[in-house]
Amino acid sequence: MEAEAYRAYCLQSVAGAYDVVLITSEEPSWETPYLRDCVVVSDPADQAALSAAGRMLAERYDLAGVFTWTEWYLVPVARLARQLGLPTAAPEVMQACRNKATSRALFARHGVPSAASVSVRTLAEAEAAAQRVGYPLVLKPAAHAASVGVIRADTPEQLTAAFAFADQAAGLGRESTSVLVEQYLDGPEVSVECVTYRGETTVVAVTRKTVSAPPFFEELAHCVDAADPLLDVVTPVARAAIRALGITDGVSHVEMRLVDGRPRLVEVNGRIGGDMIGHLVRLATGIDLPRAAADIACGRRPDLTPTRSSAAAIQLLYPDTSGTLLRLGFDGASPHWLDRLHFQHQVGDQLLLPADGGTMWTARLGYLITTAPTADVAQARTEEAVCRIRIHVQPLLADERVAGGRPA
Fold first, then answer.
1. Does residue 108 fall inside a structural domain?
2. Can you tell me the distance from the alpha carbon of 276 to that of 366, in angstroms, rounded to the nearest whole number?
3. Are residues 307 and 317 in the same domain?
4. Residues 243 and 306 in one domain
5. Could you tell me if 74 and 270 are in contact, meaning their C-beta atoms sit under 8 angstroms apart?
């Protein structure tokens, strides 16, 4: 199960300090050693079902706190905590994080450097917004996650297909079905990992990102260095964004781009970053973000004292082409600096990249994580490890490809 590969470190950390009772959508498997109890509901994002499960657990145990690291559950979990009288960020604050249009409005109101943004529902509205925003621009669902439905358009001719792509993803949203037409922020992308307790925000780390070539924004790699000089640059803007949204407590994953060296906000996620970023932070700094999130959910001040000063990097692995996986392996023994190597596909699996009707997530082969004294060395070790991975994919035949899987 891929949840184990990407979130087991979180559950393991929390279970080391607390008795954990879990509300989940399926019977636990790998989670079982970390749990005291569990309630299974068909959809934890359904408020009525989640609240009923929470009340059931509250009758069995003296609950100290509740939190989630899943994007889709942020608002329902905040409401559940409030219903149970437990510490929480306000549900409306989590809703502002989930809805990028609301976030942009709050950033503008509080003077946080962001991007020009217009919420639209039709192609005609998108065309009018594009004239105001200017090209190149970005279209994205107002409420989604993991770069789903995010695409760049450089000309009016590209706008029609780009809007259709973003609109299709937006239509799957529960919290908003709008599309945002936004100014393109041209510069390196980073995320700022923050912990807020009773209104005081500590910036714990900066994650430097590698993203795919336009028109998409798929994340390919991350690197965390405890001594990153960008910390001083991004800290004031990250704190300002968190204040603008009204976040008083919790762990935040603040995404921004550096335009001419100056931070501009992309979005604020009210949770631990995905793709093992929390694990990278612990490897580089010693700071335990899942434990911090649990402590705050229980009304306790988290320990944010760094105990390490090093670097860690993750490389997400993808095939060069769609097709059938014939070989996947690693040559030789694992070096001491290879912290983790995870493969999430097996020989015989069909891999479809976005151009052929799939997604980057379903085509992802896995990941590897390296450690080193500095970011440069960590990234060099990542490249070395990638060179030792053997991947053989039998490409799709021409008639097996899906025409128009994504806009050209």
1. no
2. 12
3. no
4. yes
5. yes
Range of the domain at 258: 189-311
- 354 and 295 housed in the same domain: no
In this structure, are 124 and 142 located in the same domain?
yes
What CATH number has the domain bearing residue 378? Answer: 3.30.470.20
86 and 62, same domain (yes or no): yes
The whole-angstrom separation of Cα 16 and Cα 79 is 26
Residue 263 vs residues 35, 236, 270, 318: alpha-carbon distances, Å? 41, 9, 19, 29
- Rounded Cα distance, 76 and 48, in Å: 9
Q: Which of 356, 343, 362 is nearest to 397 (CA)?
A: 356
Output the average pLDDT for the chain. Answer: 93
Q: How many CA atoms lie within 13 A of 255 on its CB side?
A: 26
Strands 21-24 and 37-40, sheet pairing = parallel
Contact yes or no for 35/28 (Cβ under 8 A)? yes
pLDDT tens digits for range 173-216: 667 788 999 999 999 999 999 999 999 999 999 999 999 888 88
Query: At residue 93, what are phi and psi to the nearest 5 degrees?
Result: -70, -45
Tell me the per-residue pLDDT of 42-54, one tens digit each, with 9 for 90 and over: 999 999 999 999 9
Report yes or no on whether pTM surpasses 0.85: yes
Assess if residue 230 is contained within a domain: yes
CATH number at residue 147: 3.30.1490.20
Could you tell me which of 105, 95, 15, 2 has the C-alpha nearest to residue 47?
A: 95
Query: Residue 96: inside a domain, yes or no?
Result: no
Say how many domains are in the chain.
4
| Residue 208 main-chain phi, psi, to 5 deg | -90, 135
CA–CA distance, 269 with 290 (Å, rounded to integer): 15
DSSP assigned state of 298: T
